[in-house]
Amino acid sequence: MKTRKTFAILGAGLILACCVMTYLMMDLTFFPPGQDAKLSVHNNEWLHFESRLAKLEKDFNKHHEVMSALQEAAKVKQNFVPIVRSSDNREQLGPIEAHSEKLPKCNFSINRIPEVDIQMLDLYRILDFDNPDGGVWKQGWNIKYNEEQWHRNRKLNVFVVPHSHNDPGWLNTYEKYYTSQTRNILNNMVTKLAEDSRRKFIWAEVSFFKLWWDEQSKATHDLVRRLIHDGQLEIVSGGWVMPDESVSHWTAQLTQLTEGHQWLKYNLDYVPNSGWAIDPFGLSPTMPYLLKEAGLNNLLIQRVHYSVKKRLAKEKNLEFRWRQLWDNDGSTELFTHMMPFYSYDIPHTCGPDPKVCCQFDFYRLPNFGLTCPWKVNPRAITKANIAERAILLLDQYRKKSQLFKTNVLLVPLGDDFRYTHVTEWDAQYNNYQKLFDYLNQNQQLNVQIQFGTLSDYFDALRDKHNLADFPTLSGDFFTYSDRDDHYWSGYYTSRPFHKRLDRVLLGSLRASEILTTIAWAKGNDQLAEGNIALRLSNARMWHSLFQHHDGVTGTARDNVVIDYAQKMIQALNNSAHALQQSVMHLLKLSQESTIDLEAHYFSLDETRSHHTSPGEKHVLILGDENPVRKVILYNPCPRQRRKVQTLIVSTPFVKVTDHTGQPVRSQISPVWVGPAALSAARYELSFLVVVPGFGLTTYIIQALHKPVFPSDVYAANVTVFNTDIPLSTVPGFPHIQIQPLTQEFSIFQRAELSASFGKSGFLKALRVENITFPVHLEFVKYGTRGSGKDKSGAYLFLPNKPDPDVIFTDNKHIVHLVTGPILSKVFIELPYIRHTCILYNSPGSDGFGLHIQNEVDITETQNYELAMRLNTDIMSGDQFFTDLNGLGMIRRQRFPKLPTQANYYPMAANAYIEDKHKRLTVITAQPLGVASMASGQIEIMQDRRLLQDDNRGLGQGVTDNLVTNHLFMLMLEKKRLNCPASSSSSSTAHPAA
Ligand SMILES: [Zn+2]
């Protein structure tokens, strides 16, 4: 059963990875013999390469058949909703294809609605989201208790869990934090835990732990192993980092978890038991899903909307069995504890009154230099004050325990980068031990209190209670608010350049790992060890580091953001190196050929040489000296792919043939270098490519002898609207139509789909299977609030008014139209944005929708948030759907009782709106914030530039904006008429779809 499940998950995983890479197909340019290339490749040896390629293709196809058979055998288990958004797009479905024969091909079908005790969307519908002052517990109420509930046989069992929250990058870089603080924390940890076996400590971030471990002696290694074995030290979650859960992709979350778990297994023979997520800004069910599959039994979460916390606390439902949205039988449940109060710091973890709890943070004793904001500072525990101090603290514990079903109580004891000094360890542990001794000795208090690890708490709870006594819950905890109308939806979009870079690296890394594995499986042992393996391992580590909740979220200081980006560029280059080496290993002529593991045999189609580069396209130089170039395409997906590939060439006079010498129909289009100027040095060459699953294939690009296009090469038709300036022509495009007036026009490539544009050049309608649907595209902007008010920053989105302003409404910009047999595109250059729409003549998935490219640059704005909005006549009402980390879809509802910023959600991979007849989906190549502010509308934030800090500790605004290329695909689907109508109740009730 376990094996079957693993296969099902693997199958789903592959589909999603492919969707991610829709835009990331790795294209390799094979240079003719380079002078420094160790392996001499003469032109006549291409025949060998081609036969090798043909054999490889055959092998890959066989491999694909085996994979399909395996997936068929594995079967997606009953009630498991395929994770990809339902679609009749067979190219996209990949491994699910085997099932499509048996499942009805209905793109809107609904499965049985799972029933849970607490469904988060239902809870949102009934919550008032009022914010009354609760007294000392501001966001709660005045907790009362009856002392008689505790007695000799029913003591309050308290576990005080010391912890230190270490961000692998935030105000300082990962390395700076390590050398200045984290190293000391871990050094002191081994010393101070070893002094007293009653002391406990938990650690979460394996990235830091590894750095420290590598510096330690064998004696320290042994001591750490003993502390773990004896239960004094627990590694919680065991991920490389404590990842963001909103915009991170599930494959990246899994990679960072795997990196951490592998490290723990290899070095400590340790498997984590409990998860610990105290700082991610909102929580996704993807994480409990992955943790459960990774063998964990419990999870703790903290940053949840204060109104949700209050409601769950009122009903003693802060502990629950967190299920996936599709789960009908509880097989995905993970037991979860939600912390009840505002923060994970000590003032907010001992009980409801921070003024009291702060007095029990002994790092705030006078000699450490910290104080309590509530004006009452801690006092060291003495014989004279212990009775009064112990009772005061116990009162907080007792009040806190009233929010839970059991008499086992969890009290975290820590904060950011705590326990750095030996004296701090002594202050906390010694004072608490005195309190514990006093409380335990005074039997009439009916309390049993001790230091514990997180699993000590969960074990004690599980020991006495049946998990069936706790409610089931489904859904997520977005969008997070910590107080008032301060919703943390700004970070869904902050630093979009780096969010895009995250996905580029994700795709590259996965592609490289697959090809390296294939090359290794074919006997190229060098790839599994030494330098290449090290490069891939480093790439995984740097990408995993960026999944940290101040990394991909865009909430670190400017210099730390640069550090992350530099690490990712290094990772990208390492990944690319492994990829091109693997291609060389697969294509080498014989086993005897030696390959220089440091050599660059191939250049990639797109590279990033610098941490601010939005991606540099390789230009294929063709001419008399280089009449022929060969291009190798690699498909990292497990199924055959057909797509339109565009290469940049130095001359328009080229032709394309496949590896058998057959001509391939192609289109040459100009490259725009300004609103009304064409490049004479670069041209786009586009043609349809077919690449087998996990396969490689070759296309040959040849320069023509004469500046004349043969019959299978088409020069695009170019029209420029709204200008009377004559364009200077470039070779290949002597006739460019100039239309001084704007006018409406349409483009189409395939009979099923066309797109119409208004006079402004903005999309106006999509025509799908002969029915026209209005889809008006526009750009809008939000500003920030006036002086004296809380303003938007890296975390918070606090718009100046509920509705944004529509911008670029005049019809004055120049509109460029390019049409041809392979693709058609519309390009307009606006202030802050270069906006392009493209349709491809492709039978592959790229032919199914309208592609949108937004090159965004808002560096010349101030306190400005730019969004793209689509208006349609889809009767979506207040409902819309977003993905959860690319793993599944979740229903959203726009609530007028909530402000604009609360109705924004993370879009990691896609979002859609639908009614009875149609569905509009936006697939995104980079995570961003999304909302549906009116029926029929989807709005996607593109970038934000904010001059001020938003008081969450970062201490700066977001002003390091970079030119960013956003990619989207817009798909409009009609509902199939022969599908069984899903009952109206189910279609509005299912929280997943
Ligand atoms: Zn943090």
UniProtKB/TrEMBL annotation:
<dbReference type="GO" id="GO:0006013">
    <property type="term" value="P:mannose metabolic process"/>
</dbReference>
<comment type="similarity">
    <text>Belongs to the glycosyl hydrolase 38 family.</text>
</comment>
<dbReference type="GO" id="GO:0046872">
    <property type="term" value="F:metal ion binding"/>
</dbReference>
<comment type="subunit">
    <text>Homodimer; disulfide-linked.</text>
</comment>
<keyword id="KW-1133">Transmembrane helix</keyword>
<dbReference type="GO" id="GO:0006491">
    <property type="term" value="P:N-glycan processing"/>
</dbReference>
<dbReference type="InterPro" id="IPR050843">
    <property type="entry name" value="Glycosyl_Hydrlase_38"/>
</dbReference>
<dbReference type="InterPro" id="IPR015341">
    <property type="entry name" value="Glyco_hydro_38_cen"/>
</dbReference>
<dbReference type="GO" id="GO:0004572">
    <property type="term" value="F:mannosyl-oligosaccharide 1,3-1,6-alpha-mannosidase activity"/>
</dbReference>
<keyword id="KW-0326">Glycosidase</keyword>
<dbReference type="Pfam" id="PF01074">
    <property type="entry name" value="Glyco_hydro_38N"/>
</dbReference>
<dbReference type="InterPro" id="IPR011013">
    <property type="entry name" value="Gal_mutarotase_sf_dom"/>
</dbReference>
<dbReference type="Pfam" id="PF09261">
    <property type="entry name" value="Alpha-mann_mid"/>
</dbReference>
<keyword id="KW-0472">Membrane</keyword>
<dbReference type="GO" id="GO:0030246">
    <property type="term" value="F:carbohydrate binding"/>
</dbReference>
<keyword id="KW-0812">Transmembrane</keyword>
<feature type="transmembrane region" description="Helical">
    <location>
        <begin position="7"/>
        <end position="26"/>
    </location>
</feature>
<keyword id="KW-0333">Golgi apparatus</keyword>
<comment type="pathway">
    <text>Protein modification; protein glycosylation.</text>
</comment>
<dbReference type="Pfam" id="PF07748">
    <property type="entry name" value="Glyco_hydro_38C"/>
</dbReference>
<feature type="domain" description="Glycoside hydrolase family 38 central">
    <location>
        <begin position="486"/>
        <end position="568"/>
    </location>
</feature>
<dbReference type="InterPro" id="IPR013780">
    <property type="entry name" value="Glyco_hydro_b"/>
</dbReference>
<dbReference type="InterPro" id="IPR028995">
    <property type="entry name" value="Glyco_hydro_57/38_cen_sf"/>
</dbReference>
<dbReference type="InterPro" id="IPR011330">
    <property type="entry name" value="Glyco_hydro/deAcase_b/a-brl"/>
</dbReference>
<keyword id="KW-1015">Disulfide bond</keyword>
<dbReference type="InterPro" id="IPR000602">
    <property type="entry name" value="Glyco_hydro_38_N"/>
</dbReference>
<keyword id="KW-0735">Signal-anchor</keyword>
<keyword id="KW-0378">Hydrolase</keyword>
<protein>
    <recommendedName>
        <fullName>Alpha-mannosidase</fullName>
        <ecNumber>3.2.1.-</ecNumber>
    </recommendedName>
</protein>
<dbReference type="InterPro" id="IPR011682">
    <property type="entry name" value="Glyco_hydro_38_C"/>
</dbReference>
<dbReference type="InterPro" id="IPR027291">
    <property type="entry name" value="Glyco_hydro_38_N_sf"/>
</dbReference>
<dbReference type="GO" id="GO:0000139">
    <property type="term" value="C:Golgi membrane"/>
</dbReference>
<keyword id="KW-0479">Metal-binding</keyword>
<comment type="function">
    <text>Catalyzes the first committed step in the biosynthesis of complex N-glycans. It controls conversion of high mannose to complex N-glycans; the final hydrolytic step in the N-glycan maturation pathway.</text>
</comment>
<keyword id="KW-0862">Zinc</keyword>
<dbReference type="InterPro" id="IPR037094">
    <property type="entry name" value="Glyco_hydro_38_cen_sf"/>
</dbReference>
